[in-house]
Amino acid sequence: MYLDDLVAAQKRGEPRGIVSICSAHPWVLKAAMQEDMGPLLIEATCNQVNQFGGYTGMTPADFVRYVREIARESHYPFENIILGGDHLGPSVWKNEPAEAALSKAEALIRDYVEAGFVKIHLDCSMRLADDPEGAIDVDVSASRTARLARVAESVSNENLRYVIGTEVPIPGGAIGHEEGVCVTKVEDVRQTIEVTREAVYREGVQSAWERIIAIVVQPGVEFGDEFVLPYWPEAAKELSKFIESQPIVYEAHSTDYQTCEALENLVCDHFAILKVGPALTFAFREAVFALGMMENELFPSHERSNIISVLENVMVEHPEHWIKYYHGTEAEQVLKRKYSFSDRIRYYWTEQRVQRALNTMLAKLTPISLPMPLLKQFVPDIWANSEGKWKTITPEQILLAKIKNVLEDYNQACRRK
């Protein structure tokens, strides 16, 4: 099992890691399958994929079939893919009473494991509707985690591996601007490990404890609409030292937009699993906008896809995926809808009008030779790396290259390049 080998390497003092692709976007997955240098970790989140379809409309079994088909089209061996479930627990139903929410979470866990997901993040860090006000008690969280572990263990799968932890960053980035975040205290990590172990043993699923490979903590990284908090090794040195005495590693969430040096430092400090999502779809959006601007220069207005304005119109007409996250004046919201690091635009690529506009743009640009000055103007990073082959660069290559540029930093940090 590759994840076991990764932990073992870390314990030998080798700075090895793995990037966790937290996205269902087909272009992101296709790029990852082209760029990856070894086993590929792809994760689905509880709100993205669940027994009721999630925002992708896919159940866990649907998602497995979806990834398998992309792998087939990409000529990537499906057996090299590690499927993970992120934030699996009652998060989707946190506004419901505990028993109702946990019953749905049990069904969620069972469906994921039965579908073939092997890396399971058990996340019971959130307060449920009938819980007391304030942060959830660590004992309650641990007890619920053990309950879900028992469900997972009831489905026979010797390859199951678990991630635990209560200090879990908000999926998709922070909502407001933050000047800094509190790095998890060592005593809190120690308590979480000890209390979870006791709860798992009380639940009678010692086998689950033996399969835990990582714990989620806050190393001090975060991002939001227009800010990125970089990783500072000095702030996490106590965390780094502590985990060396444990048989597990750390999993780092919200590592999007970190520099390659920061990612390398994270891996060296035993944050061996680096999760990334919005940065990848941001890169795709960046490429689409660049292509849209080239289209505007090359075709008369009545022939253009108007992809950028189509996206804006669809987001305004269907604001449910961004309205709670993008605040400020009307002008500020317009800017965030297009360019926010949180990239809520990622929820709209499957809309029919958006798909038609994207296909129209690609159909216009693919048959022609994209002019060198436009490439330098709108995709200078790709133009600079074209090695004189700019005449053969296609829109598809630009879309994939933008995503791969992000993945290259992760693969380098994980010592996979």
Instruction: Enumerate how many helices there are, as a single number.
Output: 16
What is the succession of H and E elements?
HEHEHEHEHEHHEEEHEHEHHHHHHH
- Number of separate domains: 2
Please give the oligomerization state of what you see: single chain
Number of strands: 10
Using the coordinates shown, work out and report the CATH topology of the largest domain: TIM Barrel
Spatial separation of the terminal alpha carbons: 21 Å
**How would the global form be characterised?**
globular
Fourth CATH level, the homologous superfamily of the largest domain: Aldolase class I
What's the pLDDT, averaged over the residues? 93
CATH top level class name of the largest domain: Alpha Beta
Q: Would you identify the CATH architecture of the largest domain?
A: Alpha-Beta Barrel
Structural class: alpha/beta
Order of strands, widest sheet: 1-2-3-4-5-6-9-10
- What percent of the residues sit in helical stretches (DSSP H or I)? 40-55%
Strand content: 5-15%
Largest sheet: 8 strands, parallel, barrel
Structure write-up:
This protein has an eight-stranded parallel beta barrel, surrounded by nine helices. Strands 7-8 form a two-stranded antiparallel ribbon. The protein has helices at residues 2-11, 26-35, 60-74, 98-115, 138-154, 186-202, 206-210, 237-243, 260-268, 278-298, 307-317, 330-339, 352-365, 372-378, 380-384, 395-413, and strands at 18-21, 40-45, 81-88, 119-122, 161-164, 212-216, 222-223, 228-229, 249-252, 271-276. The chain is globular and about 70 Å long. With 417 residues, it is of the alpha/beta class. The protein folds into two domains: 2-276, Aldolase class I (TIM Barrel, Alpha-Beta Barrel), CATH 3.20.20.70; 281-402, GI Alpha 1, domain 2-like (Orthogonal Bundle), CATH 1.10.400. The model has no long low-confidence stretch (mean pLDDT 93).
